[in-house]
Amino acid sequence: MAKRPVFEEVSDPTAPSRPVTRTGMIDAARNGASRGARRAIRIWLMILFAMVVSMIALGGATRLTGSGLSITEWAPVTGTIPPLSEADWQAEFDAYKQIPQYAEVNPDIDMAGFKQIYLWEWAHRLLGRLIGLVWAAGFVFFMATRRIPTGWTPRLLGLGALGGLQGAIGWWMVSSGLVEGMTRVASYRLATHLGLAFVILGLIAWYVLLLGRSEADLLRARRAGEAKLFSMSTGLMHLAFVQILIGALVAGIDAGRTYTGWPTMGGEWIPSLIWDAALGWRNLFENPALVQFVHRMVGYLLAIFAVVVWIRARRSPHPVTRGAFTVMLVAVAVQVALGIMNVIHASPLPLALAHQIGAVALFALIIRGRHHARYPHETSVRGTIR
After folding, report:
1. What is the top-level taxon of the source organism (predicted)?
2. Mean pLDDT of the region 354-364
3. Cβ-count burial 74-113 (b if 16+ within 10 Å, e if not)
4. How is residue 281 annotated by DSSP?
5. 384 - beta bridge partners?
6. Is 355 among the annotated ligand-binding positions?
7. What whole-number distance in Å separates Cα of residue 97 and Cα of residue 117?
8. Could you tell me the residue ranges of all domains in the chain?
9. Most exposed: 28, 40, 148, 291, by fewest CB within 10 Å?
10. Spatial distance between the Cα atoms of 224 and 354, rounded to a whole number of angstroms
């Protein structure tokens, strides 16, 4: 008999063969489904992000063309359809003639001019309704197919709730311009309306960034997060948000067209009309000199703080993080330049819209840098691991 190796496995040739067990198939399928769901929800949110950006731009155009008060009632359902007959148009025009803006600002407007401003406001409201429909359709679909990842339902539902609140605030803003003594909306209500739009935009941007990576990847990346840089970028994000609110106050009272010199204001470093005793605390919202001065000063502060954050980001060991903050700093420089050009040229429509879209881009880029500070991409000798 031939000798057998000591460690040879002994088996019974007559025993029935057993199938080879393959482990991990269910987990792989679940992980694949999870990745697919995150990708689909991310695409849906990116569509919503683009629509909200368009909404902000269209809202800016509506304000700059003086169209925001052309529709004098809030009709969420019936208002979807614009006037279709001359009688309908005349009824809308007659309603517009009842508000102070017509008598004090547009007494010579004809039907053709009214149709132009009406369609700006109608398009703005229609886009808001479409955003609500896209959110509702996506949310219901992902809920019905049980594709929403664990813990994400409150986040996505919260976006819809904020969108509904935004519609109500929009009418609250418009209604302020329909009362006696008002020819435009209250600036603080405009700031509230724009501020909430940026809150929604910021949340969507953060969610898109989170969904771009798996939960396991995010958990692993967070351990390498840079707490100091994250804290500084959070502060920069908050300061940028405050500057956006102040910019809305500037737009609300056309303060950007009051002082068109730079770097001084009317030849003065601090304008002599910076405080009107008759206005009291309302100077903060209604005094063009004070509102524009504050907007300029906060703009300078924001630019300085952005440079400080960028210098700190240069010490990051992660190339993607460093790159994100460099792009952010470029956006700050562009936005400052656009702001100065707006002041010098008294905020013409193209420049004013470019400045507003620049604010959107800068805000999103700050959030992107903040995300990379919290969840940096791993690096190895071969390069970045995405």
Report:
1. Bacteria
2. 97
3. eeeeeeeeebeeeeebeebbeebeebbbbeeebeebeeee
4. G
5. 379
6. yes
7. 13
8. 34-212, 214-386
9. 28
10. 37
Name residue 176's beta-bridge partners: none
Q: Is 295 annotated as a binding residue?
A: yes
Phi, psi of 145 (to 5 degrees): -90, 5
Give the predicted TM-score (pTM) of the model: 0.88
210 alpha carbon, distance to own chain's centre: 16
Task: Report the mean per-residue pLDDT for the chain.
Answer: 90
The whole-number pLDDT of residue 385 equals 52
Contact in structure between 313 and 229 (CB atoms under 8 Å): yes
DSSP SS3 for 380: strand
Residues 6+ apart with CB under 8 A from 257: 346, 347
SS3 assignment, position 182:
coil
The tokens describing 217, both together, are 């990847």
Contacts of 191 (CB under 8 A, 6+ apart): 245, 246, 248, 249, 252
How many angstroms from the chain centroid is the CA of residue 144?
28
Residue 30 identity = R
Q: Which residue has the tokens 């791993």?
A: 378
Give the N- to C-terminal CA distance of the chain in Å, as an integer.
Answer: 60
pLDDT of residue 23: 45
| Cβ pair 259, 271 in contact under 8 A | yes
* Whether the Cβ atoms of residue 118 and residue 38 lie closer than 8 Å to each other: no
